[in-house]
Amino acid sequence: MNNDIEQVLYTQEQINQRLTAIADQLTAKYQDECPLIVSVMTGAVVFTVDMLKRLPFKLNLDYVDVSSYADGTQSAGQVKLVQDLSSNIKGRPVIIMEDIIDTGHTLKYLADLLKGRGAKSIEICALLDKPDRREVAVEADYVGFEVPDEFIVGYGLDYSGLYRNLPYIGILKRSVYEN
Q1: Quick check: 121 and 96 in contact, CB under 8 A?
Q2: What tens digit of pLDDT does each residue of 139-170 get?
Q3: Residue 165 domain-assigned?
Q4: Cα-flanking dihedrals φ and ψ of residue 173, to 5°?
């Protein structure tokens, strides 16, 4: 797998340091509340689990599975809800945990859906932000790193279901996905 990586953008150590800093911000804000953490599957699972270990306050966890990728590399712009929440969010603060903000379609859809269900507040916590690809006005409240307009894998992010288990974030070689 490592031979398929063109460049490592962020090491495990850099990721750990950034997650701790974000967790400190979330703790300062939510220590006296019990927010619902909504993990966007499957890419955000590694990020979400590592964040949860750093949050020393009461919270609940749920997940959604949404998809906007038609062929695995390009967003189709149409968002499909594959798996819905099992929690009632009415009147609750919600923190959406997302692996990467790309076009913004998925997070706009999700934020609008949860707002319509009566969430007290909605904040977005994204591991990565790729602003050069944004098509919809969506901003995260907490961002780990900004990444270039390249195909990013590792630490939960994948290509065709692979590379999620890399302990770092890297750029996938074009030769891997352009064949």
Answers
A1: no
A2: 999 999 999 999 999 999 999 999 999 999 99
A3: no
A4: -60, 135
- Domain membership of residue 160 (yes or no) is no
Task: Tell me the residue range of the domain where 59 lies.
Answer: 12-148
C-alpha span between 19 and 55 (Å, rounded): 10
What's the CATH number where 51 sits? 3.40.50.2020
Specify if 154 maps to a domain. no
Examine the residue annotation and report whether 65 is marked as an active-site residue of this protein: no
Other CB atoms within a 10 A radius of the CB of residue 55 amount to 18
pLDDT 10s digits, 84-98: 899 999 999 999 999
Residues in a beta bridge with 128 = 100, 145
Q: Provide the domain count of the chain.
A: 1
Question: 50, 84, 102, 149: which is the annotated catalytic residue?
Answer: 102
Closest CA to 24 of 51, 43, 1, 42: 51
In this prediction, residue 74 carries a pLDDT of 56
What does the pLDDT average to over 119-124? 97
CA 36, CA 162: separation in Å to the nearest integer? 29
For the entire predicted model, the pTM comes to 0.92
